[in-house]
Design a protein that fits this description.
The structure is a homotrimer of 364-residue chains.
Chain A: H1 10-22, H2 29-44, H3 57-67, H4 74-98, E1 104-105, E2 112-117, E3 120-125, H5 136-151, E4 156-161, H6 182-203, E5 208-212, E6 216-217, H7 219-222, E7 229-233, E8 237-239, H8 253-261, H9 263-270, E9 276-277, H10 278-283, E10 289-291, H11 296-307, H12 312-345, H13 348-363
Parallel strand pairs in A: 3-4, 4-5, 5-7, 6-8, 7-10
Antiparallel strand pairs in A: 1-2, 2-3, 8-9
Pfam families (chains A, B, C): ACBP, ECH_1
GO molecular function (chains A, B, C): delta(3)-delta(2)-enoyl-CoA isomerase activity; fatty-acyl-CoA binding
Keywords (chains A, B, C): Isomerase, Peroxisome
Chain lengths: 364, 364, 364
């Protein structure tokens, strides 16, 4: 384009005006005001309109923008107009290379299906035959998908499960794959991975919504305390049998659950392993709303599509002001929980419980 | 009176004794003990009673007070008695100038009705034709009324609305009254006013109760997190459409709401703009109790009058011990919210949303 | 035993092997692995087994333990085996002196019944004719019983009441027993005792469960915010009439209650003295679950016995990770509440209220 030219010709200016009409995406009011003011300055010179009345907000904004250009020469204004349009076109082109239409499909994920449309990025756990148990690969892919979603142009992000389960939690066969460094190294690596994984949920910058389509266990339950909204089918259950497995709470649940549902209710879940129905989880504040399974997907997605149409910056900033205040604390809790859990994984109580679980499972 | 006399005569003393009988208001046990001890010292000299038994609390208190005067000369005791009564009478007189009987009416308020009786100061939003929307004047008058209520002799303070609405929130025509400094100055002044306004609710020293007679919107909802009790008619609804207006939460709600109702429920209100019924708001802990509209005023005021008869210092101190721990945090949250909102008010999202709202409204 | 011998004989070794079979208590997997590895090293020398596969967790653990002994001489391994068994036997003997069987009965308590069986230590308030009001002796005995329970081998600890009441709270006759130093000293001593008492609940290291068999008043209610679970009969009520008595909240309730049940609900209880039913207390999160009185004891103890069978270290550590984060804050709150209450006890409002209460009571 004409970025390097020192003076744009009248032809360049007209081309730029035509390009503006072809922009597929609204460049936003700030840019539009800038274009308006440069156009006026280039064609009429310094602002010559009477200042609009105080109630006339739109004309006041246009007047302000034009008037702010002062005595900028017409030629410079023309040049700036052409440059601005040029930068808009190229930035919109390059972003469309990343996003080929509305039905962008996930590629390269083994354990997830990731799609983005209607302003919503949907991350679906996709190991239905394993009840969407989280193996090491799925931990890594979820982190990758969250990082991508935080930068794409969706307004909200959704996590859900494919099949009957939301997720059966940490895949216990993770425990049997012992590296050369032995169980100590296994435990250490597990703690590092878990901490990084939970950290991605703490830091996620947009509204993050769980669509809990069925039973949820362990880490898939505790993480819900870090979501901004949780919609559940009445088929969903919420189960954190940490003590039964000789383990201790993670996902910041030792902090978020007592805050969400009072210590007396949180202890029953996290320490005594009580399984909650969707209705109970909703009454405790862990779930935002429960829907009958027959209409669950329809009702939830109708609602989510309406949310995704709200001003995205307002939503992002509103989440930020709520979350930022807690971020430092949440990261400290996460680090502490992972460190305690690392010790637990090496304890007799945990080893015995996992062995018993796996032998029961292999017999069935 | 005799305040300047160095020695009170027997006549002064007798006058003072008569004045005590005429006091319309109980001066409290501490003062009464003081009067008792000075009277005894003035008429009988140093304490000559045997010390009462440990179970005889009242006589023990009287004995302690008298005995504490030691060898104070009779004349000094008489003088002190006269001075004490004199100060009581004048303080009660001057306070009665402020409070002419039980039906003290607000004077000087344009947007409020303020009354004080039965130990309750009632601040009623009084722009029923505007659904009690808060314009700039009402912000200032509420602050003034709260400051007066914090110093008057009422035990509790109540905020309520006149007419069908509790309050429709911030009057959006506030946005159209642009000062000479332009929208930046407008936004800055708005943030300063809002911060000072919310600060008055954070610092209010007595039990503060909302009587929510009808729909509540925006700032009138978020402030409820700073009240000590919230009673609602079943006609009331609770709506905070901040994102819809390109704005972000205020009134400390980004901190109080997630604490009160769990983050998953708070986000649905504050970020996605869900409107709650009175029953829902009560289940979430935002409202203390809901009453049928037909009996609402009767039931609530019966209860409030009973509360107002409880020992006022105990109530004030109990509120203090709960609130003081949070005060510093709440002021920091308030400052942060106002600063973020100042930025929001200048954003395209907000300007477009407000313009759309006002044009829709002007068409209807 | 053979602790001082430098070389254990084959006879010592065989004796030790027999002793292991007689151990009444499982020494835990860690010790058993150690015994296994020393036995193998003593009888076969350095590890000569092929390394087991990654899925064969138990054999892998045994192999690791044996292999870790490297080239330790057979004699040293034999000696270490004998020493280890010797230390086990003596530690298990000494612990069995502390705990004579499952039906250990409380001895030396005047106001409590303390028993320990099925992994549960049960502390029962035992002044049924006084509605289990807490007199000074009971405060001291509860502290003693909690300290003993924190060190015994039970998995969980339960507090409950004998008779119709859970507890009617602080015994108001405590107020009438004035020491020679007068009411100031009385108030000071009361604040010191209360602070120490509440501190024991803050620091209790195992799951602590309240079995609320009937009405609960005052301190017996506020302390519930420090329990890990609260089960209540539907006969139970929850009443904190602090303002009515001119007093202010204790037991950390000024901090825990607003967190548990939202400020608007907490104020109604703590400042306005509203009495809650068991169902209301459960809806507010103060109570974990309510049971019909007819089946209360049966259902609750069935559940508690199941909890007591869960891995005790996992439960203790899970409680720890939840509680430790709050401990410093809770101790500060406790100190502040006791200091405020010390002032309240000396106030007219409190003295008058207590005198009125006791005179009404003496008339009835």
């Amino acid at each position: 384009m004409n970025r390097t030219a020192m003076r744009a010709s009248q032809k360049d200016f007209e081309n730029a005006m035509n390009q503006v009409k072809l922009l597929k995406k609204d460049p936003g009011n700030e840019v539009k005001l800038k274009l308006y003011s440069l156009y006026k300055q280039a064609t009429e010179g310094p602002c010559n309109m009477p200042k609009p009345g105080v109630f006339d907000l739109i004309n006041k904004a246009k007047w302000d923008a034009w008037n702010a250009l002062g005595s900028l020469p017409k030629e410079t204004a023309r040049q700036n107009y052409v440059d601005l349009v040029s930068s808009l076109s190229s930035s919109l082109e390059s972003s469309s290379q990343v996003e080929p239409g509305t039905d962008r499909k996930s590629t390269g994920y083994e354990t997830l299906m990731v799609t983005s449309e209607d302003g919503i990025t949907k991350i679906m756990l996709n190991r239905p035959t394993k009840k969407n148990a989280l193996n090491v690969e799925m931990y890594h892919e979820i982190m990758h998908a969250l990082k991508a979603a935080s930068k794409d142009d969706s307004a909200i992000t959704v996590l859900t499960g494919n099949g009957d389960y939301y997720s059966s939690g940490n895949d216990l066969t993770n425990f049997t794959d012992i590296p050369p460094g032995g169980v100590e190294e296994k435990a250490k690596n597990g703690a590092i991975l878990l901490r990084e994984f939970v950290g991605c949920f703490i830091d996620f910058p947009k509204p993050l919504i769980a669509v809990v389509n069925g039973p949820a266990v362990g880490i898939s339950v505790t993480l819900l305390g870090l979501f901004d909204a949780v919609y559940a089918s009445d088929r969903a259950t919420f189960h954190t049998p940490f003590s039964h497995l000789g383990q201790s709470p993670e996902g910041c649940s030792s902090y978020t659950f007592p805050k969400i549902m009072s210590p007396a209710k949180a202890t029953e879940m996290l320490v005594f392993g009580k399984k909650l129905t969707a209705g109970e989880a909703c009454a405790q504040g862990l779930v935002t709303e429960v829907f009958p399974d027959s209409t669950f997907q329809k009702e939830v997605w109708t609602r989510l599509k309406a949310f995704a149409k709200l001003p995205p910056n307002a939503m992002r900033i509103s989440k930020e002001i709520i979350r930022n205040r807690e971020k430092e604390k949440l990261h400290a809790v996460n680090a502490e929980e992972c460190s305690v859990l690392q010790g637990r994984w090496l304890s007799d109580e945990c080893m015995n419980a996992v062995v018993n679980f796996l032998s029961r499972k292999s017999k069935l």
